[in-house]
Amino acid sequence: MIKSMTAFSRVVLPARGKQWVIEIKSLNQRYFELGMRLPSSLGVYETRVRQLVQGMINRGKISLSVLEEGNGEQKRSYELDEAQVRSYLGASGRLRKKFNLAGDLSAGDLMRLPGVIREKIEAKDDVPSWAEFGRMLKKGIEKAIAHKYEEGRKLEKDLRGRIENIAKTSALIEKMVEDNRVRNYEKLSGRIREIIGDEKMDADRLAREAAFLADRSDITEELVRMRSHLDLFRKWLSGDGEAGREMDFLCQEMMREANTMASKAQLFQVSKEAIAIKSEIEKIREQVQNVE
Question: Is pTM beyond 0.85 here?
């Protein structure tokens, strides 16, 4: 079963008298990239959070947000950094003395300076241990992965439908080519006679020349390879591992076969059906970009 690159999960779990809200979003990206927002009280867990997420989700642009909410109305507390205030006042005094400036810093001026007022760090007892927080985070990641599989089922259904459309169209092309094989040979023979003349062409040489030209327009090998590619694509759809990159490469190979069929075909209807195959491959390739 394939997984989608896109996912979203939101879990709300209680711990230490608070509600912890964990939101995880995953978007399509070739490599792993994690952006996170953690409360200051959980900043010490940043490295462990990254390791846990990357250990469970290998690819994608991941956005992780953790909010802490108290029971009832959420309240924030702040405190004055007196050391920072003294530093600002000292710098102000030196500046006035050096450049002979007038004026003093007011309380309002000081309050607006960065670092003077800061959010009060919660007491250690209010912060969950890594064992507690790690369990909560793992639940959020597992929910995101479940969403990946849910979206993957929708992708798989669409991809299987398009693969079957290509298989049916390829079978139709094969029948057209087979039905037209004798007619095409006779047409080429007649054309050769017109160009060279009956009196200058013996039957054996005519047969060789016509067979050579017919072989140049034969697309049997392309049809065989297309069937092989479709079988492999179905196998990857049914597998358990990551197959997004392999599917993308296979789309390139199928497009190459379709292009060759369209260019070598002697029948307009064959070229038309080959173009229809190319259209399906393009749609598959767009969808494959979302497969992990």
Answer: no
